[in-house]
């Protein structure tokens, strides 16, 4: 497999190799691909979780279990203020 890299990416790879963090460009590229793979796995998990939450919300809405938007925002603002006070 042949890969063309921009000069900036080549410079980055070279700087990483010079730092001693990676023994070879192959090792560095494999580490990058593994990181991308992990990121994709996390994204997929979050996406699946979001889909489940949407389904729960739709079912609750169909059953009439809804909360007025103003109430939700008021409660969120109160929680935010509490966190600010705790942090301060």
From TrEMBL:
Key words of the record: Toxin-antitoxin system
UniProt cross-references to Pfam families, sorted A to Z: ParD_antitoxin
SUPFAM superfamilies: Ribbon-helix-helix
Ranges in coiled-coil conformation: none
Metal-binding keyword on record: no
Presence of the UniProt keyword rRNA processing in the record: no
Top-level division of the source organism's lineage: Bacteria
Homology family: Belongs to the ParD antitoxin family.
The protein, known as: Type II toxin-antitoxin system ParD family antitoxin
Organism of derivation: Plectonema radiosum NIES-515
